[in-house]
Amino acid sequence: MGHVVIVGGGIVGLAVARELLARGSQVTVLEKESRWAAHQTGNNSNVVHAGLYYKPGSFKAKMSVAGNQSIVEYARANDVPVEVCGKLVVATADEELPRLRVLAERAEANGVPAKMIDPAEAREYEPEVACVAALRVESTGIIDFPAICDALVRELTEKGADLRLSTMAKAIRPGRDGGVEIATGTEVLRADALVNCAGLHSDRVARLAGLTPSAQIVPFRGEYYELKPERRHLVRGLIYPVPDPALPFLGVHLTRMLDGSVHAGPNAVLALRREGYRWRDVSARDLAETARFSGAWRLARKYGRTGVDEVLRSLSRKRFAASLARLVPAVGPDDLVRCNAGVRAQALLPDGSLVDDFLIETAPGQVHVLNAPSPAATSALEIAKYVADRVAEAK
């Protein structure tokens, strides 16, 4: 497919560029920020997910299981730090056991290496953990996703891709002789196809291109703490709670990073701006857009109590520590120091339901990645293959 313009320079956009280049396309990548991977990719937990959480047969299930292997192979081939360390998902009360067993069944259905273990076995992996049972998942890893993007940028540059930072797509229209035209403010680019990987702004880019997307992006901020250096010994690897199946978030968990630090989080609160990494980051436009969206009000009615709890935990280190202490009782408020937050681009339907799978929509000459939160970084090379196939079809 001739010349393809990709909007968005996170890991998914860069991976799509690599795949299209390998298939013979000429590629231009537009990134509005002055650096690559500035938002979701550069502000996540750097976990290589195994694929056990997702409904068998879903995009997330298939792409994360395959991506778990392909992203690790890419990292090793490009000297990017990665460690396949495994993790524990722990049930801290008997009422969580049925949900833990469902996860074990999903792991088996998805081809994820995992096994149920008892508390004594769990403490062999994590001596400070508290649980009534746990699921040991072998293929989960930790990685440096921004370094993966650096490797992708080097590869793309060497192979002749046109990579443009500080360049925003400001207007999009059909080309006069077919294809698509993208105005950046300084020039008009003419291409045979457009791929939208704009993450937090993916729905806006879709509307800019004349599409009416089925979902709207609502930003959720995930806040993190880390354990003080003298308390890092409390966690050897990755410790996760049993997630609430009604929500797309995995719950507050503990993750030992590649540098030995231990991150704790994230919670999930509504961000007051699409790129709102702090409470004081407020956008009147973004808030008004959310307030006008019926799906946001329906979501609030459905999960109001959960939302209040998340806000209270955001404002209270004591509450945050209490969530962690369910997993590792030795963790207390004085063990935590706040660190960087991330913002998740969560697609929401008008009926108030959260889109729980990757959402990719097409139009003539266009492919729009409208929902690609976690595990999109893990799955980036697999998403890229799927998108490239859709580009070939979207004529």
Q: Can you summarize this structure?
A:
The chain has helices spanning 11-22, 59-77, 97-110, 119-125, 145-158, 202-208, 284-292, 294-302, 304-315, 317-325, 380-393, and strands at 3-7, 26-30, 47-48, 82-83, 87-91, 114-117, 133-137, 141-143, 162-164, 171-174, 180-183, 188-191, 193-196, 216-227, 238-241, 253-256, 262-265, 269-270, 336-348, 359-363, 366-371. The chain is of the alpha+beta class and 395 residues long. The termini are close together.
Shape: globular
Q: Spans of 5+ residues with little confidence (pLDDT < 50)?
A: none
| Coarse structural class | alpha+beta
Sheet with most strands:
9 strands, mixed
The residue fraction in helices comes out at 25-40%
Radius of gyration based on Cα positions? 21 Å
* Mean pLDDT rating: 94
Strand element count: 21
**DSSP summary: helix tally:** 11
Distance between the termini: 9 Å
Percentage of β-strand residues? 25-35%
Describe the structure.
The protein is 32% helix and 25% strand. The protein contains eleven helices and 21 strands. It has helices spanning 11-22, 59-77, 97-110, 119-125, 145-158, 202-208, 284-292, 294-302, 304-315, 317-325, 380-393, and strands at 3-7, 26-30, 47-48, 82-83, 87-91, 114-117, 133-137, 141-143, 162-164, 171-174, 180-183, 188-191, 193-196, 216-227, 238-241, 253-256, 262-265, 269-270, 336-348, 359-363, 366-371. Strands 5, 6, 7, 14, 15, 16, 17, 18 and 19 form a nine-stranded mixed sheet that branches. Strand 16 and strand 17 (262-265) form a beta hairpin. Helix 1 (11-22) packs parallel to helix 5 and helix 9 packs across helix 10 (317-325). The model has no long low-confidence stretch (mean pLDDT 94).
